[in-house]
Amino acid sequence: MNKRILQTGLVCAGILGLSGCINVAAPEEPIVIELNVNIRAEVLYRLAEDASNTIDENADIF
Asked: Where is 56: in which H helix or E strand?
């Protein structure tokens, strides 16, 4: 049993000896994400198309 404890201790010491130092640091400059998306124009276009289709289909209502 003592041999088993000694082996486990040596394995743990070896693992701790092999572990390296990990450094995590923030970048010097801020991260910039540019999203140039024009969603409004597409939504308005789709609404206009749907409205046009609705008016054409129900001309007697309008």
From this structure: helix 39-57
Question: Going residue by residue through the chain (62 aa), what tens digit of pLDDT does each one get?
Answer: 678 888 888 777 777 666 667 778 888 998 888 887 766 666 667 777 788 888 888 878 76
CA distance 26 to 24: 7
DSSP, collapsed to helix, strand or coil, labels residue 52 as helix
Give yes or no for a contact between 48 and 55, defined as CB atoms under 8 angstroms apart.
no
DSSP codes, 6-50: HHHHHHHHHHHHH---------SS---------HHHHHHHHHHHH
